[in-house]
């Protein structure tokens, strides 16, 4: 078949889906992005810390290590060129007691292998000179870490797709796809009885819906769809003045980076996320969790006043590992995995997916057009 309605269809208008759409648009393709929600970026992309990660933690040679560093460099340039609000505030990874020094030293070594720029070892005294309220036995400074206005970023990506002649269509859920003889796909979207369209290339990047979307693509082997898990994290906001200017991270917890501190672009202090595995998309925040948060936060900020934490919001991460299992890499699965030419299926795009989004988009476009 030669007369396709679109060169490429992307399922999911979060940061990664939009970045894939932008990358394909830049290469001259006509692009359609489908989003089931009424607005772009309503899932994983809107319920996170809005942190630009340096790339410290990720295993040597992994997609996370590569895309985080490449994506972070590209992201700062993108934000600068388009005047999107951001702040390269830097991050302190803190050993709050002597037995954590080895943990942060291993992070430093991994970050060095990952080619993260500007890292510094700090004594506790040096860290407190930067952040006087901090409890630190030692610390690592990552000056390339920061925060940004993620929704403004996504709106910019959408604008680039549309300026190139593409479309981003909301309130239009993906229903199913079937491979066409000779290549390409027929897609049904917009609910049962919805519109049918054809595309040469298909990218699935719907975050929490990745497994369900893959299962609705005819011919996608069920044993090639990885098991998914919902990793919920809640955030609490501080009532009062923000105590630190930089991001503050204790050593990571099992399966995640753990509860950390940021001063958001509005100047307010936010703590989170924690990690709890859940069965459904539940975005409630239990105020009773504040007590556990306070205990954890006082490890690095002993001056946290009693009763100063208020429930803020929750996010859910599309994890490929369950409790106690090792944390796997991003999956960008092409025809070599599932046997369907022209399809790129993304799974497990959690942190550092937002930071990595531009690099992921470029990699997806390169692989599809190779």
UniProtKB/TrEMBL annotation:
InterPro entries membership: FAD-dep_OxRdtase, FAD/NAD-bd_sf
Q: Which family does it belong to?
A: Belongs to the L2HGDH family.
Q: Name one Pfam family in it.
A: DAO
Gene Ontology terms for molecular function: (S)-2-hydroxyglutarate dehydrogenase activity
Q: Where is the FAD dependent oxidoreductase domain?
A: 7-367
What this protein is called in its record is FAD dependent oxidoreductase
- Report which superkingdom the organism of origin falls in: Bacteria
Gene3D superfamilies linked to this entry: D-Amino Acid Oxidase, subunit A, domain 2, FAD/NAD(P)-binding domain
- The yes or no answer to whether the keyword Transcription is present is no
Instruction: Give the required cofactors.
Output: FAD
Q: Which UniProt keywords apply?
A: FAD, Flavoprotein, Oxidoreductase
């Amino acid at each position: 078949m030669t007369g396709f309605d679109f060169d490429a269809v992307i399922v999911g208008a979060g940061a990664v889906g939009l970045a894939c759409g932008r990358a394909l648009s830049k290469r001259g393709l006509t692009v359609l992005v489908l989003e089931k929600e009424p607005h772009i970026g309503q899932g994983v992309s809107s319920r996170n810390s809005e942190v630009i990660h340096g790339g410290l933690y990720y295993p040597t040679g992994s997609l996370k290590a590569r895309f985080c560093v490449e994506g972070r460099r590209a992201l700062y340039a993108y934000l600068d060129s388009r005047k999107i609000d951001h702040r390269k505030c830097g991050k302190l990874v803190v050993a709050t007691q002597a037995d954590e020094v080895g943990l942060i030293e291993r992070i430093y070594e991994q970050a060095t292998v990952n080619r993260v720029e500007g890292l510094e070892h700090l004594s506790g005294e040096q860290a407190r000179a930067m952040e006087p309220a901090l409890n630190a036995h030692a610390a690592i400074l990552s000056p390339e870490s920061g925060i940004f206005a993620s929704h403004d970023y996504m709106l910019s990506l959408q604008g680039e797709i549309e300026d190139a002649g593409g479309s981003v269509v909301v309130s239009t859920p993906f229903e199913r796809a079937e491979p066409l003889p000779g290549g390409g796909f027929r897609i049904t979207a917009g609910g049962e009885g919805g519109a049918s369209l054809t595309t040469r290339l298909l990218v699935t990047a719907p975050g929490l819906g990745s497994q369900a979307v893959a299962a609705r693509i005819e011919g996608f082997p069920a044993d090639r769809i990885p098991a998914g898990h919902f990793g919920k994290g809640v955030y609490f906001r501080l009532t009062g003045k923000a105590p630190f200017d930089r991001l503050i991270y204790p050593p990571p917890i099992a399966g995640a980076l753990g509860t950390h501190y940021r001063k958001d672009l509005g100047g307010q202090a936010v703590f989170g996320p924690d990690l709890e595995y859940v069965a459904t998309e539940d975005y409630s925040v239990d105020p009773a969790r504040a007590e556990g948060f306070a205990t954890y936060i006082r490890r690095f900020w002993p001056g946290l006043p009693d009763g100063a934490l208020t429930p803020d919001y929750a996010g859910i991460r599309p994890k490929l590992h369950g409790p106690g299992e090792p944390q796997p890499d991003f999956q960008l699965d092409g025809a070599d995995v599932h046997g369907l030419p022209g399809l790129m299926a993304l799974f497990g795009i959690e942190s550092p997916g937002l930071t990595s989004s531009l690099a992921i988009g470029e990699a997806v476009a390169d692989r599809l057009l190779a």
